[in-house]
Every structure is written in structure tokens, then in C-alpha cells.
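Aim 2, interim progress. The first record below pairs a target sequence with its C-alpha cells.
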Amino acid sequence: MTYKNFTVDTDAEGIALVTWDMPGRSMNVFTEEAMRELEAIIDTVAAQAGIKGAVITSGKDSFSGGADLSMLQAFLGDFAKARKKNPEAAAKTLFERAGEMSRVWRKLETCGKPWVAAINGTCMGGAFELALSCHGRVAADGDGVKLALPEVKVGIFPGAGGTQRVPRLADTQAALQMLTSGQTLTPQRAKAMGLIHEVAEPDQLIAAAKAMIRNGLKPVAPWDEKGFKLPGGPVYSAAGANLWPPAIAILRRETYCNYPAATAILKCVYEGLLVPFDTAQKIEQRYFTEIMQTKEAAAMIRSLFVSLQELNKGARRPHGVAPTSFKKIGVIGAGFMGAGIAYVTAKAGIPVVLIDRDIPAAEKGKMHSEALMTDQVKKGRATAAEKDALLSLITPTDDYSQLDGADLVIEAVFEDSAVKKAATEKAEAALKPSAIFASNTSTIPITSLAKNSARPKNFIGIHFFSPVDKMNLVEVILGKKTSEKALAVAMDYVRAIKKTPIVVNDTRGFFVNRCVLRYMSEAYKMLGEGVPAAMIENAAKAAGMPVGPLALTDETAVDLAQKIMHQTVRDLGEGAVDPEQMKLIDTMVDQHQRFGRKNGKGFYDYPAKPAKKKLWPGLKELYPQKRPEDVDFEELKLRLLAVIALEAVRVMEEGIVTDPREADVGSILAFGFAPYTGGVLSYIDGIGAARFMEIAKKLQKKYGKEFKAPKLLAEMAASGETFYQRFDPYAKEKQAA
């Protein structure tokens, strides 16, 4: 029999080699067709007496990324429609579909013939669950081999036996940590945990897998044998008593119960380990069905998987513009940002000319890359040869003529219009006419800076976030005269350095900074109201933010907040900044020299390591303090999320961002907006525009104009629309179809 996605070759010893190689895809994923074919292969292996066992591997560089979540998203959409007509039938269908992969893997596990997974590369999600259902597992020894069950990161959990097989193979504590965090394992770590049996050289992988079958591998899972004992001991034991209460407490501390899937994992493991394996799978299936119906799962799958992939593939890139293959990139300004941009560019294999006012300053910028690579080598994440290769791509200089031949130049000089004007003019004098010039400005409108250019059509903003090597989002900002060619080149560059681009029209603060400044501003206002600083920070974390607004101010610098406030007043007038908030920041900077983490003093004190940072006690003396019991903690959480979301609505209303995918993904990647919500706009969609309108009105009445609902929100509340309906990112595709 022939298959579209698999080939089956049986050798003279009767060992079948099943090779998974889906046509037209860079990575294997489970689709309904692939599942049907694999089940047919399992049946064939079981039925044919001449086949002793089977090895399953991949014909691609990676093993598999797991299930096709786009297919799952579409299925959830169908379920939502079906539920309106017949809730009971829809729920039953969902339950059956939720258990389909588990059923096939269990069929493999109990087919009576030994199966071995030969894992040659990335093996994630349902694919790793497939491997765990095999009787033997061998992974290739290499940096590209990663094993994980990362489903919790997109709002669901390993629902094809992962929550049952992992804690039956590994110590329960290690299993829970892996499952609830989506932790990625190296082959060595997976072997130490007991999740795989062998690590082999890549060219010996198949031979090692076949040897396991030749050597008498039993076609029975450990938990199907009499006398099986859990590696971590029974749930009801001294070990269990020491594990489960802290595990529950740790989960609450880390997630604040915002992630239903993480909670479901603990329930699945706890309940599943008390019963036989087949019953445990039904428990897992029940919880998986429940989680798939949550708004968190729908929002996270959409934003953190589907939308993220689409943006990474260039969903907003102009059509009809030939892709750019970069031969040379110029970076002007070798300070912290410029040095970081040079590093990520060289890491992508692109030669970089790094320019500063003099050679020592430029060389200092290159040393940033050297320090980062030295750290990577120490941690075993890079070799000395890779470090040398990267550094050889960076040319530090003070000579603008070396920009000749560059396809793109990125200016990252001091945030001063005059300095940027000089850099633009010097660079354009050396550049070819077709080259694109980009500014990394974080505050100055691109249209204003483009006036310094002799070719404003080739002028664009490419706004990185700090630290450049760690932050995955890049704002690509369009000036009024920016051409599609400039946009395409900027998008090609961002994709080349493996970051996620979002397209933003020109405005003060662009998208991310407008939202972040609202977040910080609301915290300053809370301080002025007498809310204890610890409650503000804890409320932010409980709401799902990774960093409190005061800590975030310290990270970006308190004196930078002061500069932004004063510049805003100069540009827009005194009414543009709350005088009480400016007084707070001026007091912090001018009277107490508290500039943030960079000088060890901000809203927090930063003692020498290993001591941890702690809130500055002096904050209590700036304002009369309310008693914690007099503060509505839930309202603090609501204010911090709502003030950001309302600013995002204004950004959409003004046409600064036009695609809801970019607002959602951008808000999560740039400042960690409560990922369980799916992002700023999905947060409102999840609540409903009408209900959110009511919330905004109450907050406005109590706390002021920052909570005034934009006209757009009022219109959506009246019409019952969501952002993904009002600004449908797929409208053109639907019209074309």
C-alpha cells in the first residue's frame, strides 16, 4: 500500500522502517489525513506475520512539531457554531475528537509488535506523545534535537497521553515541572528523566533503533505489566504527601490561576495516577475537552500560534516586491541598542558595518557581541568557532564610506533630532540609491525624521526593544512617504534575524510605547492615591503581567520616564502630563537620584547579588499610605489591564495599527500583556465590547479620563462586533475566494 505522508520499507530481518515526510511542508505535523495513514500502518504492522516490529522516524531535519493547531482552531470554530444548534451533540463530538489521537497511540502501544521512535530532530507535542507510546525511544545527539510537550504555552495541554505517560516514566516532581511549564529537553536530559532509552550519533540513529527490536524489545508498556510501580511513588504515600501540597501552591504562585490548562494538568496527573492507565486516559480526555472550550485556549491558540506564525511568515509584507537577500547591513551608533542590533544581524550570518564617532567607540560596541558569545560558549550553547565566525562579520569603524554596498542602514544614535539628521545625511552620501534607511527611534515620529532624507520613500522605522538579543518583537513604522519597497525590505530583514515584525503607522510613541506608558502612568497614579507599592506590583502580576509597572519603569530607567514627560509637555503643552505624576518622577530623579536599575536605585533598591531587589522604603514617605484592607485588589488588577486595552483601542481607532493580530501578538511579545487573554484586543473580545464598555464607564467615573471609552468601542458595543470581525485580517482572502 502507498501513502502520501509516509513510506514503509521492511528489511530482510522483518523490521519495518516507517519514514514520515509530508510533501510541501518544511515540518511534519499531524493532520487528519496523516493520522488516518499512520493508523493504517499500525494495523498493517500488527497484522503481517513477517513484520517483527517497526521504527518510526522522519525524512526531514526535524521529527515533528506535533498537531496542526490551525486545524484545531478551525475545529473549535465549527464546535462553537454547532453548540448553538445542539449543545449536547456538539459536546459529544468534541469529546470524541479530543480522544482520537490518544486512541491511535494506545492502539500502537498495545498492538503486540514492538515500535521504536528514532527521533532525529525537534519532537514536540503530539509527536512526542507518539514517541512516548512507542516501546523504545532513541534520540540523535545534536543541538537541533529538542523534545517537549509545550501545549500549555498556547492554552491547552498534552491531551494524547502526555499527562499519563510522562509521570509513569519520570519522577512525578520532574514530570509536573515539565508538563506545567512546557519545558524543552535535550536528549541527555530526557534520558536522565527516563523519557527516552538511548542517545545515538545521528548517523547511527536508525541502526540503534533497529537494534533495540533485534535485541528482544518487549511490545508492552511498563504500566501494562503486572507489578508496575510509579517512579515517584504512589500519590497516597509519604513522597506524595511531600509533593502535592507544595506543587499546588507553586502552581498558584506562578500562574495566579489564570491558566486553566496548567491547573488541569495537575488534576490529570493526580487523578490519573490513582487508576489504571486506560481509565486515566479517559480522565485526561475529559479535562482536555473541558479546556478546549475555554476562552483562554481559543485566544492563546489564535494569538500565540496561528497569528504568530502568520506574522513570522510575512503576513503583512507587500505582495509583488522581490525578496531581499542581504549582503551588508550598516548600523550607526554603537551604544547598547546599536551594538545589540549588530549582534542579532551578525548572528543571522549577515555582514555588519558598525559605525560610531570614533574607532574606540565602535570597537566597544563590537565587544558587546563578544561578551554575549563568550557567555554562550561558557553555557555550551555555542562553540569557539561559532563565536569567531560571528565576530568576523562585524566591522567597527568611524568611516561612513564603508556603508557603500549596504542594502539597509539602521540608525541607532542618541534620541536627538539634530544628531539623527547628521547621521542620515552622512549615510545617504555613501549609500546606493536603492538602499533603505531605517531609524530605531522610540519617540520621534518617522515622518518628521524622514524630512532629513533626500529619499523619504526609502526611509522607514525599525524599532527594536531592549535588550535586542532577547526581545522578539520589532515595530516596523511607516512614514507618510514610505514606499512598499522600503516596507518589504524592512520585513525581510526582521524575518532574517528571526524576530516578529508588526507594521505600525506613524504616531508619537507608536503602538507599544503608547500602551506601556499608560501602564506605568496608572501605577504612578495609584501611588498618589496612597496604594501601597507592593499591592500595585502584586496586582499587576496577579492580573497576568510578567513585570510590575514600577519594576518596568526601573528597567527602562526612571530618568528616561522624566525625559519623556518633559518632552511631552514641550511638544503638547502642560495638560498632556498629570502634574502629580511629573512631581513624583521629578522627586525620584532630582531629589533622590533614583534613576532605576542602571544606578541600583529606583522604585526598587538593587543590592549586590545574591540579595534580591526590594521596594524602596522611601516610597511610603512620599504619600499617605492606605491600609491594604481599604484597597480593592481586584479593581487594581482591572485598572492595570483596562488602561492598556483602552489605549490599544485608540490606536486601532486612529489607524495606527490596522490588523488585530499585530496588536495582540505585539502586546504579548513586547511587554507581556497577560498572555492567557490572547493579547490586548482579545482581552476585550473575551469580555465582550458591551460589557467592557460598562467597565470603562465605571472606571472613568471613579478614576478619570484615561478610562474614557473611544467612539470605536461604543460602536462595537452597539453592534455586538469583535475586533476580529470589525478588522477581519482575512477579509481580502475571503473576497478572493
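The second target in this work package is listed in the same format:
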Amino acid sequence: MSQPHRHQHDDHIIRNLWQVMSAYRWRVVGALVFLILAKVASVSVPLVLKRIVDALSRPEQVAALPVFLLAGYALLRFSSTLFNELRDLLFSRVTQRTVASYALDVFIHLHALGARFHSQRRIGGLLPDIDRGTNGIGFLLGIGLFTLVPTLIEIGLVLAILGTRYSGWYTGIISVTFVMYTGFTILFTSRRTIFQRRVNRLDSSAKSRLADSLINYDAVKYFTNEALEANRFHDIMERWTGAAIDNQKALFILHVGQSAIIAIGVASVMLLAGQDVIAHQMTVGDLVLINAFMLQICLPLNALGFVYREAKDALVNAEKLFQLLRERPEIDEPDDLPPLQVSRAEVVFEHVSFHYDPARPILSDVSFRIPPGHTVAVVGGSGSGKSTLARLLLRFYDVSDGRIMIDGQDIRGVSTASLRKAIGVVPQDTVLFNDTIAYNIAYGRNGASPEDIAAAAKAAHVHDFIKSLPQQYETPVGERGVKLSGGEKQRIALARAMLKNPPILIFDEATSALDSRSERAIQIELDRLSADRTTLVIAHRLSTIIGADEILVLERGRIVERGTHAQLLLQGGVYANLWQLQRRAEKLEQSDLTT
């Protein structure tokens, strides 16, 4: 990324944060007032200390202990701490609410992004980017803002006091030190940012590799590829280590350079002050005052360098998060689209074509109608476009040509939320949330009562199995439902669809992953669920769709045959060949079982 583009991104991030913070403007103003009071108290401490030292340095006045000055000194120190704590307390709501707001925005935005984005994203790399981004925003709002501003205020106050009370040499030396320190910090921090970006990129890559390997734990074990996975992860970590070491070297140069500039500045000021005391142009109290002010400036300068470095890192981290928020949904529909009005639940595909890439069409001129309460099944080889029909009906993607209608309404002209509420899906691969069985069934209808959940489970013939478990409906299903068998997961998916009670159903190869016994049992429930509902069945096993009102045969994205099971067998075409092949395979399977 070029330097001007980086500055534009940084400016965009800061402007965006400021807009969010403007909702809490009175808290921001209050926090700034406490900040200024804290710095005034902090700068006043050396002034009172000088008077105490001067008073105690005069032998004739030692007997009269400056009680009020000592009390004032203690009070000012306490006041500085108190005002800083009040500032942090007042501003904490701004920081935490803003961070939470961005985290929620990203969460909502990720769900709003289309299927194409989610098919390409790597969850292991995405989560660290979000985590670092929200942490970066928290830093920019909290420590960044309340270290940068008070440091500049403190330096300004000290320079004003020294300029009015002492030789211009003191102000000059401190100003030169500040300019040199700032210039050095900006120059070397910009160089170091390159290393920080590389470290972040490799860190995301490592997390992504780790997550991908653990998600595919079974495959790793099947092929005994633990060593291969370890070597791949080791390669990434080696590159990450190299980048982190380069980053640390750049940080070393930055720290040493900053410390050297501060040391030269302090030595110059103290040397000049020592000469003035010997020449009786200043008192010991003045020397103490200047020394205290130098310490007060040097510590914030170090802090300023730290904050600038960390702020640049935070901006780098926030970049990814804001890039994510700038991702546009593939289907960016207007907010004022009317809801789908379902009366008969008739589904029509009219000359539908679709492609991800124009050079590789997925569907070409597909037309069919599913009358209300009827079942249409789609069969075909892998890659023929069967599952794409379901995704288009759910509007995960928009058609390239043609249109899809429900009860005469083009689905592009109605709100996507209302469209998907009208459709129930029983997928091939049922992925469950890492929660209880009750939660996963109730996901079909928000706010469903325990009685409704149990009724849906009974309808899916899974209630007896659930009641036999020690925790019954409160049984955790594990990550992606790993604690349940394929048939049990499929029945829960079925119960979820029954609870939703939609007018339109999609069965996307819902039984293809099951054994023959489980398939037959589930198929009976699918037939009961689809009775009197408009149903699209994406089929793998032809035996499951014999009773469909119409069967479509897809090849390379085109409908090559259509008709009932009996009609297609009489035609002796593609469907008849598929039927014969599957019947032969089933007979071989049965003979293997009996021998």
C-alpha cells in the first residue's frame, strides 16, 4: 500500500472514530476538563517543591516549618491522581461502548455479506483480524487520546513557565530536544510499521492454518499426516519468527535513539542549571524545579514515543477491521423492499441462467414450475447445478438471466428476510450450534416454547431418543454436532424445519450421507413433512424421489429430461440409465451384506 493511501486510510479511521465518539460529546468534554485539571496540578507540584526547598535552605527560617506548603504539595499530588482517575472513569463508557459497537457492527456485517465472501474467507485468519482491530480501536480511544493530549498540554505548560522565569536557553534546549525526539520517532516508527504489518499478516496466516488443521482433525488422522501439518505450521512460524525479530530490531533502534536524544537534552539543561547555581543566578530550589520539570517532560516524551508507536500499530490493526466493514454484500438490497406475500406458494423458474464466471456457466436457460403443494425433484451428476437451484431460490446469489418467482412475485423485488422465512431447508450436511439439543431445534422458530420444541421432536421421531439421554433436551451437541450420529443430526434438522412450519421446503440431498436404514426412516418423515407443501428436492438417491410429481434431469446446467419416475423410465434416457446403475449398486450392496 502506498504512503498516500495509508494516510487516507488512517484519516478515514480517525474520522470514523470521531463520528462515533460524538454521540458521547459531553463525556468527552468532561474527561478533557479533568485531564487539564490533572496536568495543571501535576505542573504545580515542582513549583511548590521549589518554594519548600528554598524555604528550608535558609537557616534563619528552618525553625518555621512551611506547613501550608507541605500540605499543598501533598494535596496537589493527590489532586493530580484523583483528576486522572475521574477522567478515566468518565471516559471508560465511551471507550467500551465504542469498542462493543464496532464488534457488533462487524458481527452484523459478516452475516450481511454474501455466500461468495464466506466461501472464500478463512475463519482462522478472520478472527485474529477482528480481535486485533477492536483492541486497536480501544487503544486509540483510551490510552492514545489520553496520553497524547495531556503530554502536549504538559510540555506547553512547562515551556511557558520556564520561558517566563528563566533564561531562554532552557526553553531553547527543551524545544530542540522535543523537535529532535518527535522527528526521530515519526521517521523510525514509519519504517517499523512495514515490519508490524508483516508480523500481523503472518500471525493471521498461522492462526488460519491452525484452525483449518484442527477443523479437519479427522482427515489428518485418516492419512497420518500429523508430521506434514506440523511442518507446514513450522514453516509459517519460522517466517513469523523472522519478521518478529526484524520488528524487534527496528524497535531497539527506535528506543535507543529516543533515549539518547532525551539523555543529551537532560544533560544539557542540568549542566546549564548547575552553572547558574554556582554563579548565584539561581537558587537550589530553581535547580530542583528545573530538574523536576525535565523529569516531567522526559517521562511524557517517552510515553509520547510509546503512544505514537502503539497508535501506528493500532491503526495498522484497525485497517483490516475497517476493510472488512467496507466489503459490500453481493446482494445489496434497498431497505424499503416489501415483504413476500405467500398465498399459494407456487414457485416458478423462468429461463434462469447463472454463472460465477462468464466463461464457466453453471445453469443455462432453466425453466420449470412447482405448483402449490407439489414436489419437484432435481437429479444429475456432480457439478450439474442441482444445489445451485436451491441457493438461487434462497437468494444467496442473484440469477444472471431470467427470474425466479413465488406467487408471481420476482424474489429480487421482495425483502430477502421475508423470502427466507417462507422457506424451510433440510440440508445434506446438518451443522449444529455448539449448544443444547433444545437450542438447535428452537433455532427454527425464535421464541418457541418447550412444548413446541417437544412436539417438533416427536413429529421428527427424535423425541424418544432425546428423552433417553441423561440431560435430555439440555444435552450439549458439541462443535458442529459431533456428539450425535448422522441420523440423529438429520432428525434434529428435520425437527427444526417442522418447527419453522414453512409453506415452501427444500431438501438438499438430505439423506445422501446416511446408511440405508437411517435413510428409509428419515425419508418417511421427509415425505410427511412435504405433504401439502411446495417442495424442491435435490436428490442423490433416485429411490427417494419415486413419488415426486415431476423429476428434472440436469446435465451441465441444462434440463435434458423431465417427467414422472414412470415416464422417465419409459424414455430410456439419462434417468433410466442412472436408475439401472443405482439399482445394480444396491443389489451388490445387499448381496455383500448377506454373505
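Residues 1-6 have pLDDT under 50 and may be disordered. This observation will shape the mutagenesis plan for the next reporting period.
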